[in-house]
Amino acid sequence: MKVKFSYFAQVRQAAGAESEEVMLADGADLAAALAEVSARHGPAFRTLVLDDAGAIRPNLMVLVNGAPAAKAGGRGLADGDEVTVLSAVSGG
Questions:
Q1: I need a labelling partner for 63 at 20 to 30 A (CA). Which of 3, 10, 30, 92 fits?
Q2: Which residues, 6+ apart, have CB-to-CB distance to 17 below 8 Å?
Q3: Is 27 among the domain residues?
Q4: Residue 6 in contact with residue 84, Cβ under 8 Å?
Q5: CB atoms within 10 A of CB 35
Q6: What would the pLDDT profile of 4-63 be if each residue is shown by its tens digit?
Q7: Which domain covers residue 30, as residue numbers?
Q8: What distance in Å separates the CA atoms of residue 3 and residue 23, rounded to the nearest whole number?
Q9: What pLDDT, on a 0 to 100 scale, did the predictor assign at position 69?
Q10: pTM for the complete prediction?
Q11: CATH code, domain with 16
Q12: How many domains does the chain have?
């Protein structure tokens, strides 16, 4: 199945891309999808997105089709879904 990923803030910088389409195994969940894109983009990306146990970092916002996704990452994905990943931005 094909899933579109869009990246914002620090995650975009680490990915080196604004967006991409990723082919995933049918039935893949959000955690598996983020592990896949983390493997593609290397350690800097992985450190921003996943903790040492492979869980989604709590300071990360992940949306699936515009709706917030649970941090556990167990949400199943479907062909054509859009995943948005953005890191918290601080400042004033």
A1: 92
A2: 7
A3: yes
A4: yes
A5: 16
A6: 999 999 999 999 999 999 999 998 999 899 999 999 999 999 999 999 988 889 889 999
A7: 2-87
A8: 6
A9: 87
A10: 0.89
A11: 3.10.20.30
A12: 1
